[in-house]
Each structure stands twice: as structure tokens, then as C-alpha cells.
Design a protein that fits this description.
Layout: E1 20-23, E2 27-31, E3 39-42, E4 64-67, E5 90-97, E6 101-107, E7 111-117, E8 125-130, E9 136-144, E10 147-152, E11 155-160, E12 167-176, E13 178-180, E14 184-188, E15 196-200, E16 207-214, E17 218-224, E18 229-233, E19 246-251, E20 258-266, E21 275-281, E22 285-289, E23 298-301, H1 312-317, E24 321-323, E25 332-333, H2 334-338, E26 349-353, E27 356-359, E28 363-364, E29 370-371, E30 376-377, E31 383-385, E32 391-393, H3 402-416
Length: 417
């Protein structure tokens, strides 16, 4: 009897839930292990808490405080985006002088128009923008030499040569949600005479976020009193003189006083360079509250070009863990977000995808406040406990992968031929 083996290539479908949603009757917590992206919820709401600024007043001798409109910067999509101004939905009518750039975010597919004018020009540059459905789109209008560029999500959408705009008007015929990118940061055009030092007392914070934008010949030398030292160079170089931000995460011991020193250096000492930097304290989550209804409200990631280590099956078998890091110290647990009273996210729904929500371990009911009935356990009480410790799953996928079952079936079929 001959045996034929068939090699089958089966696609592996991964979860698209990069942000984990925890919610009770009044609050929503967005848990995200991507330090380079902000989060938001649908329906759109303002967040409750904000990332804390780090006091950098002692750096004034080495750095200058700049505004985002003073330099040709691209759109902001990291955690700082959550703290930007958030006007109410209204018909857009905004006019301003242009210095170097102007960035803003627009939600949903409402159309809008940008009209750009030179100081003595009667032929305006008009651009009609349309965002994406149920998503934030990010735009930057950037002046470079004698040209004007319009970027959408860091890609050039439109440009006009020999046209250096001085005035901008944004308009829409319908109500629109938008966020102008007004924020400050530290900037310098010279190497360090001495290191800039930051000291942080004992806190619950476990990391710092360093946001940097550097010239190609520039770098930062960073030293932490825990023994870590590293060099920051610009991975994403400027395009058409537009500068982009990149994020660096420094893990710290919350039980110790932290001391971080930063040195501005250049590979070529004769370079006319620039160093831009901002620093934030980490938070493991973003909180939204005061909802009229939170039934269908889910967290989303602003910059989803990131693959999380999140795995729903791992959460199911490791109650209390939300995000599994490469190092066990980087894991995020329920108590990191909700406090020590909620080691397993008690009385909260856990949503791993936009259409998958389960009550936390040991709870069920519409509001996830009812404890499991006798003989039941697990998330949403979907696991039935049988005698002698045996258990079967009534709501979860079988533990044997579908691909293995199909392969066994096909081999068995070939054998019968």
C-alpha cells in the first residue's frame, strides 16, 4: 500500500486587536504596548487623564523651547497626540499665518478644503481633502525653500513649486472633528557643553518615553544610572526637509531614584545640525470616562503599523495578564491598569477585537457583575467544570488547531484511495 503525503499551506490568521479594551459601566481603559502610538475610542470621546510632563527647566542653558509650527515637522501620531487640543465638532473655519508648517488630524470621511495664499498672490493654491471612514487621518502643510507640500499620513499628497504659502484657511461645509497639532518641545543647534541631566524620584512609573528628531549627522548619547547607556540616531531621515519624530523607551525601576543624562553630539563637528527632543512619563493605559453609553465603545490604535505581542488565547490561560512582553518584566497586568483590587480585571469586560468582548475571569452577565454559577468558570463563565477536574470548552475554539485537523483528514482520505 502506498502512502501519499500532501503538503498543505494554511494561512495563520492573527488577531487585529492591537489595543485591549477594559470597560465597566462608566470607564474605559485602553491598554496598548506600542509606545509609538496614541489611542482613541469610538464613538469619539475625550480622555480623562493625560501623560505627565517632565520638568525640564534646568535644561534652558542647553536647549530652546520651540512650537511645532516653528519647524518643518510632520504629523504627530505618538502618545503626545492624546493631549492635543480637541475642539467640538463644528463647521471648520480656521485661518492662520504660516511659519514653517501646520499639522492637524481629521476624523472620518467629511470633506474639507485648504486654501493657501502667498502674501501678494491672487492665485491661491486649493486642496480638497477627504479623510478615511471611522479613522483619524493626519495632514501636514510644510514650507520647504520655495515650495509648499501637503502630506497625508507622512506621504506627499500634493505640492506646488515656486509657491511659498504665507496664509492658510481651512473650511468645511459640514460639521467635522479635527485636532490641530499645537505642542512644544526642546530644540538646539549646537553640541553639548555639558550633559543635560534629568532626575525623577520614586514613582509608580516604570519607563520614560523619549521623542527625538535629529539631523543625519547628529546623535544623542543617553546614560541612565541603572547602568544602561545607548546612542540615538535618526532612523527615519527627513524628506523634502520635513522632520519626523521617533520614539525610544527607557525602562526604569520605580523603587529607585532615576538619573538620566543626555549629550548632544555630531559625527562631523563642522555640521550645522539640529537636535529636537521631548520627554514623557509612561502610562500603561489611557482612560476615558463619563459615557452616556459604552456598550459599543472600543479602543483603537492611532498608528497601527505595529504588531503587538497580544494574544487572546494567552490571556485566557493566564488570568490577570493583558500584554505579554518579550521580557516578563514588561508584561502588563490587570492591576497595572485598574489597581491591586482588580488582579483579574474583576467586573470588567475585556475586548480583544472590535467584535470580541468577554467578561473577566469568573464573571458573566450584561455588565459582567455576576459571578459564575456552580460548575462554570473562565472568561464569561464559558468553561464547564466536569468531575475529576476534567473541563471542556463550550464557547472557545478547540485547543487542537484547525490546520492539524484538516491535515489529518486529508492524509486519511489519501490512504483510502
Amino acid at each position: 500500500m502506498k502512502y501519499y503525503f500532501v503538503l498543505i499551506s494554511l494561512p495563520i490568521i492573527l488577531s487585529n486587536g492591537y489595543v485591549i479594551t477594559l470597560k465597566n459601566l462608566t470607564h474605559i481603559h485602553c491598554v496598548n504596548d506600542n509606545p509609538d502610538s496614541a489611542v482613541y475610542v469610538l464613538p469619539i470621546e475625550r480622555k480623562t487623564n493625560s501623560l505627565k510632563d517632565v520638568d525640564l527647566k534646568t535644561w534652558e542653558n542647553e536647549w530652546i523651547r520651540k512650537n511645532a509650527t516653528n519647524l518643518p515637522l510632520g504629523p504627530l501620531t505618538d502618545k503626545r497626540w492624546e493631549d492635543l487640543p480637541f475642539p467640538d465638532a463644528t463647521r471648520l473655519k480656521y485661518t492662520s499665518a504660516l511659519d514653517s508648517s501646520f499639522s492637524f488630524s481629521v476624523f472620518s470621511s467629511t470633506s474639507w478644503t485648504a486654501r493657501l495664499l502667498m502674501s501678494n498672490d491672487f492665485s491661491p493654491m486649493d486642496y480638497k481633502g477627504v479623510g478615511d471612514v471611522n479613522k483619524w487621518s493626519h495632514y501636514s502643510i510644510v514650507l520647504s525653500k520655495n515650495s509648499t507640500y501637503i502630506y497625508k499620513n507622512s506621504n506627499i499628497e500634493y505640492w506646488e513649486r515656486e509657491f511659498k504659502a504665507r496664509y492658510l484657511t481651512l473650511e468645511s461645509s459640514e460639521k467635522i472633528l479635527w485636532r490641530p497639532h499645537f505642542y512644544d518641545f526642546l530644540w538646539s543647534n549646537s553640541t553639548s557643553e555639558k550633559p543635560s541631566v534629568l532626575e525623577i524620584g520614586q514613582k509608580e512609573t516604570t519607563c520614560l518615553l523619549l521623542y527625538t528628531s535629529l539631523c543625519p549627522e547628529c546623535f544623542l548619547e543617553v546614560r541612565v544610572n541603572n547602568g544602561d547607556s545607548f546612542r540615538i540616531i535618526q532612523n527615519e531621515l527627513k524628506k523634502n526637509s520635513v522632520q519626523f519624530w521617533q520614539t525610544h523607551k527607557i525602562y526604569i525601576d520605580p523603587a529607585k531614584r532615576v538619573r538620566v543624562s543626555v549629550n548632544k553630539k555630531a559625527f562631523n563637528q563642522n555640521v550645522d545640525g539640529y537636535w529636537a527632543m521631548d520627554i514623557k512619563l509612561c502610562e500603561g493605559h489611557t482612560e476615558f470616562s463619563n459615557f452616556d453609553t459604552i456598550t459599543n465603545t472600543i479602543c483603537y490604535e492611532l498608528n497601527n503599523n505595529f504588531k503587538s505581542s497580544f494574544n487572546l488565547d494567552a490571556i485566557r490561560h493566564k488570568p490577570g495578564i493583558l500584554v505579554i512582553g518579550d521580557n516578563i518584566k514588561n508584561n502588563i497586568y490587570c492591576w497595572d491598569v485598574l489597581g491591586k483590587k482588580f488582579p483579574k480585571c474583576e467586573k470588567h469586560k475585556i475586548c480583544a477585537e472590535s467584535n470580541q468582548c468577554y467578561c473577566s475571569w469568573g464573571f458573566e452577565g450584561e455588565n459582567c457583575t455576576d459571578r459564575c454559577a456552580s460548575g462554570r468558570r473562565g472568561m464569561s463563565c464559558q468553561e464547564r467544570i466536569l468531575p475529576y477536574g476534567t473541563q471542556i470548552s463550550t464557547g472557545w475554539k478547540a485547543s487542537v488547531p484547525a490546520s492539524v485537523i484538516i491535515l489529518i483528514f486529508l492524509i486519511h482520505t489519501v490512504k483510502l484511495l
